[in-house]
C-alpha cells in the first residue's frame, strides 16, 4: 500500500536540516593562495566543479538552516576574463561558508560613462524581484578574498569587507574607505536611501556612501586586517570610466543630496534578465549624466 500523507511528511521532516548554519563553518580553510597568473577556467569548467550551484547562480545549503538570504551584486561591463576568475574563487568560498546566496552580474549596456553606484542600486531592486533577500553584498569584479573566514553575510552595522587589498600593501588606504566589497542589510540600505545615482565615471561614490552611513548614525564594521585580505586583478582603467571631475565637490554635498538622489529616484531601463548556470545577468540602460548637478 502507498504511504499515507502523514508518513510522507514524517519522512520529509526526518531529512530536513534541524540546526542553523554556524557563523564559521567547519568547511572553511582560512588563508588561501589566490593567483591570476594562469588563464581563467571556462564557464563550463567552473560550472562542472560547482554542481550544487543552481541556475541563476543560486545556492541553498542542504545540511543547515541559513540565518540570512544574501544577494551578491557585481557592477559590470567588458570584464569577462575577470568574471571567470571571480566565479572560480567565489562560488566555492561562499558554499564553504554555508551562505544561502544568489549572484547578480549587473551589466551596463552601451559605451556611455560607467556608473557603478547606480548599477548597485539596480542590482538591489532586481534581486528583490527574484527573492526576499535580507542581505546585500556589493563587490567589484576584480577583487577576490584571500581568506574564507571573511564571512559574506550582513552585520549589525554596514560591513566593509575589503580592508587589506594587495594593491594598497594590504592596508586600509584611509579610515573612511568603504570601497571594493561592502555589505548592508535591507534595513540599512533603505535607511541611507540606497546609493547615489549621479556619480558618473571613476571615484567618489564610495565616500558618498560612507557619508550617508555616518549621517544616519551608523558605524562601519570591518573584519580583522589579517582576515580581510584581497587580491586585485591588475588591469588598465576601462574606457568610458574616466575620473569623475565633480567627485570632490559632490562628496561635500551628501547631507543635501542623499534624500534627493538614491533608491527613491532610481530610473533605468531593464533590457534583459538572463539566468545563466553560475549567475543571473541583468542588462540595463542607465541613462546619461544630468546636464546640471544638484546644488545645495
From TrEMBL:
Gene Ontology terms: cellular component: Golgi membrane
Pathway entry: Protein modification; protein glycosylation
An annotated GO BP: carbohydrate metabolic process
Residues covered by the Galactosyltransferase N-terminal domain: 25-154
Catalytic activity annotation: N-acetyl-D-glucosamine + UDP-alpha-D-galactose = beta-D-galactosyl-(1->4)-N-acetyl-D-glucosamine + UDP + H(+)
Galactosyltransferase C-terminal domain segment(s): 159-235
SUPFAM superfamilies per record: Nucleotide-diphospho-sugar transferases
Signal peptide span: none
The entry's keywords: Disulfide bond, Glycoprotein, Glycosyltransferase, Manganese, Membrane, Metal-binding, Signal-anchor, Transferase, Transmembrane, Transmembrane helix
Top-level EC class: transferase
Pfam families found in the cross-reference section: Glyco_transf_7C, Glyco_transf_7N
GO-annotated molecular function: metal ion binding; N-acetyllactosamine synthase activity
Listed EC numbers: 2.4.1.90
Membrane topology, from the record: Single-pass type II membrane protein
Subcellular location: Golgi apparatus membrane
InterPro entries recorded: Galactosyl_T, Galactosyl_T_C, Galactosyl_T_N, Nucleotide-diphossugar_trans
Domain of life: Eukaryota
Primary location class: Golgi
Family: Belongs to the glycosyltransferase 7 family.
Protein name: N-acetyllactosamine synthase
Organism of this sequence: Petromyzon marinus (Sea lamprey)
